[in-house]
């Protein structure tokens, strides 16, 4: 007898949890399903590398009088920085250095530190970026809805410059280096209020505190998973495929309850996987260590000193006359200059003397070996087409790439760009597991789906549509239940009040004199 009673109690709790958590969760579900559809077509604004290069001007090599070694010395760099870049700033070539102590910008003409731009300088930088578009408004801000990311902390405060163009463009210029670091337009901003902002719970007031925002995401998506699991469980319990209900129905419900039951049965599993993968997006409990060995770029460079050979400016100018950016670094102990023109033009790799430079696969593998000393290389693959772990979706990933697989306990993979020699990524087994549990479940970013948008988009619309109907019906059911509970409570309070009044009217009065009774 104890077992049936226990089962009955368990079912009562199952229904109770789903009902009361679901009343709030269905609002979030609806928000996430609708905003997810929007994000398929309008991502969160970001300044891409192609946009940054397109907004730059070619380097004036004839005016470069300060070489890379001199720039590092003037910037007081004790070791080779994470980034050493030459481009144009305010009409003159400039060195941009990102070291351990922050970022430094120096004139490549005379070596002076570039001063923090005032409003006029910021406007000039924005107009150069936007081909001279007129300016409508200028203000200095710390951050706003589109610059809240912690990756822009180094650039703050920012000059926000609104252009008087048809697109409603807004550019953000760093007050420390004078670079354009973000761009948005009116269409992006409007759609993102229905897309990324609600989907990520990305309100600037909330996102400013990264740790608190992470907890909010965890404690909203976590209970949502419970609602999904309990709902699917109840849905299966109430479904009858053999001994059907009246009129041959598989569900006992009618109206909104019927829609909620059926859409939950069909789309409930996908809703659960979306909620679960969304919960994983903030890496709860630090379950996933997605990167490879610490200090990878420095080990790959195999050169720690704050120096670089002298440049042959004429040869470099001849090699890439339209280069808008030159990056300086080391690969396996060899100095490398990478020249980039526009986003659709492959970078040119050269030596400091301006001669063309290419690394063999064996040389790149030897440089990668420094990341994992003493660990044998299991396999080297030249990847010429996207695969399950290297594909472009929400980020730019070039092809071909060289994948080097190590035989270590973490099963580390290192990915290198054979054209530039650049270290693109380090990924261990944990990171590849995360790729399946988050990216695959949340984005459906399998190569055959990404290559066939006519298949992927209808699939996402269908599943999201099921989720929207499930959420809407849940909201209606929840509202009706709350209204019914409120009316029941109000009636109970009214009966209790009437009972107290009746008792009071029939009780003897002791507040009057005896002779008045």
From TrEMBL:
Keywords: Membrane, Transmembrane, Transmembrane helix. The keyword Hydrolase does not apply. Residues 497-517 are annotated as: Disordered. The chain crosses the membrane at residues 20-42, 216-237, 262-282, 459-479. This is Peptidase. It comes from the Bacteria.
């Amino acid at each position: 007898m104890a077992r049936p009673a226990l089962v009955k109690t368990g079912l009562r709790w199952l229904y109770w949890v789903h009902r009361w958590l679901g009343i709030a969760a269905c609002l979030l579900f609806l928000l996430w399903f609708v905003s997810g559809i929007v994000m398929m077509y309008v991502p969160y604004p970001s300044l891409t590398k192609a946009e940054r290069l397109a907004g730059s001007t070619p380097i004036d090599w004839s005016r470069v009088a300060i070489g890379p070694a001199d720039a590092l010395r003037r910037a007081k760099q004790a070791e080779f920085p994470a980034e050493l870049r030459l481009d144009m700033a305010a009409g003159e070539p400039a060195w941009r250095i990102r070291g351990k102590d922050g970022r430094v910008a120096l004139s490549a003409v005379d070596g002076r530190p570039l001063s923090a731009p005032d409003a006029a300088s910021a406007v000039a930088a924005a107009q150069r970026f936007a081909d001279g578009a007129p300016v409508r408004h200028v203000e200095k801000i710390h951050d706003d809805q589109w610059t809240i990311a912690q990756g822009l902390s180094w650039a703050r405060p920012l000059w926000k410059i609104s252009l008087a163009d048809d697109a409603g463009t807004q550019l953000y210029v760093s007050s420390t280096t004078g670079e354009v670091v973000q761009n948005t337009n009116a269409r992006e901003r409007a759609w993102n209020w229905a897309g990324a902002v609600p989907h990520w719970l990305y309100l600037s007031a909330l996102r400013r505190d990264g740790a608190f925002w992470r907890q909010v995401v965890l404690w909203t998506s976590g209970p949502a998973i419970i609602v999904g699991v309990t709902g699917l469980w109840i849905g299966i319990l109430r479904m009858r495929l053999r001994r059907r209900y009246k009129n041959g129905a598989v569900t006992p419900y009618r109206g909104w309850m019927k829609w909620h039951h059926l859409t939950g049965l069909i789309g409930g599993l996908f809703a659960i996987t979306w909620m679960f993968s969304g919960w994983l997006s903030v890496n709860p409990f630090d379950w996933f260590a997605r990167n490879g060995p610490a200090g990878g770029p420095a080990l790959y460079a195999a050169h720690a000193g704050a120096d670089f050979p002298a440049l042959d400016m004429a040869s470099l100018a001849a090699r890439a006359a339209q280069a808008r950016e030159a990056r300086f670094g080391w690969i396996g102990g060899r100095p490398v200059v990478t020249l980039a023109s526009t986003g659709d033009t492959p970078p040119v790799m050269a030596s400091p003397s301006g001669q063309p430079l290419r690394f063999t696969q064996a040389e790149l593998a030897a440089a990668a070996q420094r990341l994992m000393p003493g660990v044998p290389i299991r396999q080297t693959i030249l990847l010429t087409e996207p695969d399950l772990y290297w594909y472009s979706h929400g980020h730019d990933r070039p092809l071909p790439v060289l994948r080097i697989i190590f035989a270590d306990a973490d099963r580390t993979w290192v990915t290198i760009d054979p054209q530039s020699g650049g270290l693109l990524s380090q990924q261990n087994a944990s990171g590849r597991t995360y790729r399946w549990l988050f990216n695959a479940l949340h984005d459906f970013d399998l190569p055959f789906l990404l290559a066939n948008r006519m298949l992927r988009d209808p699939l996402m619309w269908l599943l999201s549509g099921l989720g929207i109907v499930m959420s809407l019906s849940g909201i209606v059911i929840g509202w009706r239940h709350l209204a019914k509970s409120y009316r029941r409570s109000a009636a109970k309070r009214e009966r209790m009040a009437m009972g107290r009044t009746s008792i009071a009217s029939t009780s003897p009065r002791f507040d009057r004199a005896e002779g008045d009774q």
